[in-house]
Amino acid sequence: MSNSxxxxxxxxxxxxxxxxxxxxxxNNFNLVHLSTGDILRAEIxxxxxxxxxxxxxxxxxxxxxxxxxxxMIRSKLESTKGAPGYIFDGFPRTIPQAEALDRLLHEVGTExxxxxxxxxxxxxxxxxxxxRGKDSGRSDDTNEDIIRNRIREYNNKTAPLAGYxxxxxxxxxxxxxxxxxxxxxxxxxxxxK
Length: 193
Ligand code: ADP
Prior knowledge:
Blueprint: E1 6-11, H1 18-29, E2 32-35, H2 36-46, H3 49-59, H4 66-79, E3 85-89, H5 95-107, E4 114-119, H6 122-136, H7 144-158, H8 161-167, E5 171-175, H9 180-192
Parallel strand pairs: 1-3, 1-4, 2-3, 4-5
Helix pairs in contact: 2-3, 4-5, 6-7
This protein binds adenosine-5'-diphosphate.
The site of adenosine-5'-diphosphate has 18 residues, from helix 2 and helix 3.
């Protein structure tokens, strides 16, 4: 049954390394990777109406509305039924998104297993994002004001999710500084607990 699923919320500020560690988790645990940032960028590239509406917000480092990303996740969950589990990357980012995710998973008889939270200092984050901006081609990675706004959005709206999952006994903090392999090792240990 779906109770045996492994459903991970990969959590951390922009630049914490969620994308990198997602790749590791997908390969090791055969999970479906759902990144709302990636889905939104695909919508923009495809020129959909949703993409056009999201682009202006993303370019400024603001969050897109909850109902938009919740709808995207709902349809991905439907189209990937039977998956052994999920990595939610960049979602949920607000308390209403976390509540909606709990409801959606409950409807199919499962729940979040653990939140893995990558912990990295703000100075290190800004440095990494500006560096990534040199070759990622992402317009939200090239300007320091926009990066600072993304971190502000994170601190105001997203950081409270740590408490939301901690109350459920599901929070697991992972030091996000070190080599990719070192951090992957810490993640593997946290999942095995
Ligand atoms: P990062 O974590 O490096 O900022 P993402 O790819 O996760 O990158 O997100 C890029 C942008 O996409 C965010 O700044 C935001 O505008 C939008 N976005 C992605 N996921 C969400 C979400 N769950 N809720 C609202 N906005 C989102």
